[in-house]
């Protein structure tokens, strides 16, 4: 059976862990060459080494446009082109348990990675794709960008912006044969929780867990947390030719939690 991404070259930002890692592995399994980008160099290099000649690792902080441009250049140099850009890297931020205590530094950092990273990744990849017959941009948002709630205000705002940006970019970049779609994961079991605990106080971590656990456990129609492979499979579909007529799509991967009234699930 033909592999779905045979002959394609992809960049996966935040590819050393969690959803990015699962997607890099899935893309390689489906025949793609993958440039894994991250700031966690040891994990990223180890992953690329394990995936063999189809994968490379490059350090890149997505909040730096020069790093992002270097990624695009490296994909072209190492693998001969760039067809898929997965803007996946993200942080939760939220060092303060209460909004009134939040600081603008935290906001700027979250926006810099979660929103500017998507903007820069899309622009630099799309400049190459526009000159070379098109391509696919995938952005990773979050259910937190769709459903309102307490805490993590910077994160929620950044992810809502990624969703709207995706739709605008889909319209703008269609003329170049570039499709732009957005993944909207619900709660996925990844190390983002350990990333969160290193970035926020334990008090906030516990508040988030306590506040969201009943929703995650009982009100989700499919009654289970997602796993990184669930998102990787959605990314594979949107990246491949089976999704050739899909652009500007906002795809929930959340067990149905955003579909309706949780009380009546
Ligand atoms: P993760 O912590 O397992 O992976 C995130 C990766 O991004 C890490 O390897 C980290 O080193 C990297 N990273 C952080 N800052 C970076 C930067 N400036 N430049 C490059 N790489 C950077 O988390 P995850 O759960 O796999 O999250 C991946 C994406 O999925 C994020 O955008 C996150 O917001 C989104 N998401 C996650 C969930 C969830 O429940 N886990 C839900 C919705 C959306």
Automatic annotation (TrEMBL):
Question: Which Gene Ontology biological process is one annotated for this entry?
Answer: steroid metabolic process
Q: Does the keyword Methyltransferase apply?
A: no
One GO MF term: oxidoreductase activity
| Keywords linked to the UniProt accession | Lipid metabolism, NAD, Oxidoreductase, Steroid metabolism
Question: Do you know which NCBIfam families this protein is assigned to?
Answer: PRK07231.1
Q: Family assignment?
A: Belongs to the short-chain dehydrogenases/reductases (SDR) family.
**The name this protein goes by in its record:** NAD(P)-dependent dehydrogenase (Short-subunit alcohol dehydrogenase family)
| Natural source organism | Nitrospirillum iridis
